[in-house]
Structures are given as structure tokens and as C-alpha cells.
Automatic annotation (TrEMBL):
This is Trm112p-domain-containing protein. Gene3D superfamilies: 2.20.25.10. Belongs to the TRM112 family. GO terms for molecular function: protein heterodimerization activity. InterPro entries: Trm112, Trm112-like. GO terms for biological process: rRNA (guanine-N7)-methylation; tRNA methylation.
Length: 168
């Protein structure tokens, strides 16, 4: 996973969707690999000019990896050749091959294996099983939400019931 990809990822837990504290995911126990990529100044300027890269998040991430070569802030007109070459190296040539990303809000750990981050839903397994059962309960109209261990599921059960009543 390139640091460019990391800069686009945020925690998708329900409790984190309404907060701004779900980004950037903290890198933990990572193995890095440098893979050379052809320099493309136009591509980098497009990334930076379009606001596609969160500068604050990038600086925080690279500093956590021990690199302090980027300034704290930068304006689009300050993107000289030196900064663009640093960005090229950091965003495109550094690959995270193993490790984990930790949400700063809920502390959920997303693993990275063979350079691929596992961003699959972090909903507890018991809730997923009960959600599948919910369809059966709902179709038989004997829905009983006693799932107090999973508040979002209880809310969705109530919403499904309300939606069903409206459609009738």
C-alpha cells in the first residue's frame, strides 16, 4: 500500500462516521519497502492542486515513520521542485507491506498484509449473524430486538420495522 492510498483511508466504523477524528489512521509495526517509480511532476501537481492529498494527515504520517522532511504547511504556489520530489518519494515510492493501521477515535486495528489493507466492516460477528437472522424475523413479523449489546443494530431493527409499517 502506498502512502498515497493511506492518505485516502479513514475508519468506517459507525461510531467514527460522524467524527473528524477517524483520520489519519496511525501506522503501527509496519514494514516498508521502497519501489522506484518514474517521476511525474504533472501528476503530483494535480494531486496537490486538486486537494486530493490531506497535507496535515500526510505530515503526521511521515513524521510517525521518522521522516521530518516535509514542512508543517505548504501553499500550492510553494510547490517547488524539491518539495515535489519529496512528495513523489513519500506518496508513490514508499510501500507499506506489513503492519497495521489504528483508528485514533475507536482504536480499531486494520491489518495490512502483502501490501493490502483489510478495511472490511468492523461490525462484530455476532451482529452480522443476527442481522442475517433479522431478515427471517422480519419476514415472519415476529421481530423482537433483544440485541442490547449492539445499539446500532437495535436502531436498525427499529428503523426496518418502521419502514415496513410505512410500506404496508
Amino acid at each position: 500500500m502506498r502512502l498515497l492510498t493511506h492518505n485516502l483511508l479513514a475508519c468506517s466504523a459507525r461510531t467514527c462516521l460522524t467524527t473528524s477524528n477517524n483520520f489519519p489512521l496511525a501506522l503501527k509495526d509496519v514494514q516498508l519497502e521502497v519501489v522506484e517509480v518514474e517521476y511525474n511532476e504533472g501528476f503530483l501537481k494535480g494531486l496537490m492542486g486538486g486537494g486530493k492529498v490531506d497535507w496535515r494527515g500526510l505530515v503526521q504520517t511521515v513524521r510517525s515513520l521518522g521522516d521530518s522532511s516535509l514542512p508543517e504547511t505548504v501553499n500550492e504556489d510553494e510547490l517547488d521542485d524539491d518539495i515535489l520530489k519529496k512528495l513523489h518519494h513519500l506518496l508513490l515510492e514508499i510501500h507499506v507491506t506489513q503492519g497495521a493501521m489504528v483508528c485514533p477515535n475507536c482504536s480499531h486495528v486494520f491489518t495490512i498484509r502483502n501490501g493490502i489493507p483489510n478495511m472490511v466492516s468492523i461490525e462484530p460477528r455476532s451482529c452480522r449473524v443476527q442481522r442475517r437472522s433479522l431478515v427471517l424475523w422480519f419476514s415472519s413479523r415476529s421481530l423482537q430486538c433483544s440485541l442490547t449489546h449492539c445499539v446500532p443494530l437495535v436502531r436498525s431493527c427499529s428503523q426496518l420495522l418502521a419502514d415496513h409499517e410505512v410500506q404496508r
